[in-house]
Request: fold
Amino acid sequence: MVTLTPTARKIASALVAGLSLMRSPFARDSRVRRQEELMLELLRQLARVAEELQRANLIQHHRLVVEQLDREIDDAALADASSTLTGLSEQRHRQMIFANRAYGTVLVGHQIGRLTWEELIGHLRVLCRNPVFAEYWERTVEHRRSLPVDSLEGRVGGVVDTILEELADDPDEWWVVGQVDFDSPNG
Reply:
């Protein structure tokens, strides 16, 4: 065991104190960096929660719309109160409401992240093959005129218009219509 003289002890104490002073800014910087990292992670988690709440609100809104559409399908008087479509038999009117419901469900599936852009296009290709949906789309063209072209619904409406045009030209090639032209709006 080494015995230190009083002078050596003073030098050692000064050295230890000096080292701790030197580490203190580094320790503080390390703590600040750690706090910043924690804050960034907290913000990322908060953003994810906000996105999930947005999706949950969209799903809830869609449920309310579907419930209303179901009532309209069941009760012709309610359908007449909320629809702008005229000159349709009661049965055809119900079919138009159901076509709207089917389209809305596919669109919400994409909005909540359940369907990729490519999957959305695939569902739309199949939906567009249905003559009731094609009639619904033709009858509601005025409803879509006010949509901003760069909004999701505006872009999807343009895709459906193109699919229906291509199907009219060659209905036997329905699975390839729009194959190249419908790139994802996200890149």
